[in-house]
Amino acid sequence: MKTFFPLFLILFLLGCGGNQPATPSPDTAGSPPPAESGEGAVETPAKAGHPILGSYVGLFEAKTYNANQNISWSNKITVFLDSITGDQLFGHSVVAGNARPFIGTLRKQGDQFVAEGSEPGDDQYDGRFAMTIDAGGKTINGTWRANKKLGVSERQYSLTRRSFRYDPNLELPEETGWADLYNSYDEKTGKAEFLTADVTKYNASTRLLKKEEVENMYKSDLEVIRNTIYARHGYSFKNRRMRYIFDGYVDWYMPVSVDIRDQLTAVEKQNVELLKRYEQHAARYYDEFGR
Fold first, then answer.
1. Angstrom distances, CA of residue 47 to CA of 88, 140, 154, 162
2. Angstrom distances, CA of residue 130 to CA of 20, 61, 74, 140, 158
3. Helices 266-279 and 219-232, interaxial angle, to 10°?
4. I need a surface site. Which of 38, 89, 166, 195 has the fewest CB within 10 A?
5. Residue 108: which of 85, 133, 142 has the closest Cα?
6. pTM of the predicted protein model
């Protein structure tokens, strides 16, 4: 009996302990139960790592247009493929001072992806994209059709993948120094407005300019130097004169935003004010004949 009672007591205590709830392990403590299919289930996350997601830049060229209207033949566009959820593609485009989202369908077709996307429709320049994207995410080719009757009802594009990065050291190419400005040719006088070599002299993003450096410049040179600050930040120009220069002559230019005011550096802000001040009083343009 001396050994029976302790053994009985031990068995009794063990039996009571088996009814206590188990202590949760560190791996499972506080974890919610897995969602059931149907109502309340967690939505499949966007495919953030999909190889086609990213930004693509190139020319947005007129394909179907009214030849009697003063159209913009070609503008540089950046198309962003932002996310994919199921078979839906979400993206946005930036072109000619306008940033617009689009939503559409995406499907695999051979070694390519085919997508169709529509802009919201609440802007007069909204339309529908049709695009083919190579599976490696290097190029996009396609068309865009306007929802409403415009001077250009259809555009085509061939875009190359490129990431944007602000670089204050980017310079205008030398050939910018003899570029003519958009729609400046006068048939009666035979004169046109041209930039000069002065436009490539100074980088207004890297140092403060002195008034002695800019006070005798032509108005157009000053205007382009100032707008080069904005171009380095990826500003999308509404002004056709500036689009004509940066879309046509500046390979590094990539439109990514319609408002870059809060991104300007202290040096850039001071130079913008200086350049604007002298633009108001500068000689209007440099004339040349027969070009």
1. 11, 19, 31, 20
2. 63, 14, 18, 10, 12
3. 160
4. 38
5. 133
6. 0.80
Q: Is 274 helix (H, G, I), strand (E, B) or coil?
A: helix
Tens of pLDDT, residues 117-161? 999 999 999 999 999 999 999 999 999 999 999 999 999 999 999
- Kindly list the structural domains of the chain, giving each domain's residue range(s) and its CATH number in brackets, ordered by start: 54-161 (2.40.128.120), 174-289 (no CATH)
Which amino acid would we find at residue 100?
R
* Consecutive H or E run containing 129: strand 127-134
57, containing H or E segment: strand 54-65
Instruction: Count Cβ atoms below 10 Å from residue 152 Cβ, excluding itself.
Output: 21
Alpha-carbon gap, residue 107 to 245, rounded angstroms: 37
Q: Please enumerate in sequence order all residues whose Cβ is within 8 A of that of 101, keeping only pairs 6 or more positions apart, or say none.
A: 90, 91, 92, 119, 120
The DSSP H or E segment spanning 99 is: strand 98-109
72 by Cβ neighbours in 10 Å (0-12 / 13-18 / 19+) ranks as middle
Sign of CA dihedral 168, 238, 141, 50: positive
238-251 pLDDT, tens digit each: 999 999 999 999 99
> Given its phi and psi angles, is residue 114 left (phi above 0), alpha (psi -120 to 50 degrees) or beta?
beta
Helices (H), the chain: 4-17, 211-214, 219-232, 240-249, 266-279
Distance in angstroms (rounded) separating the CA atoms of residues 151 and 72? 9
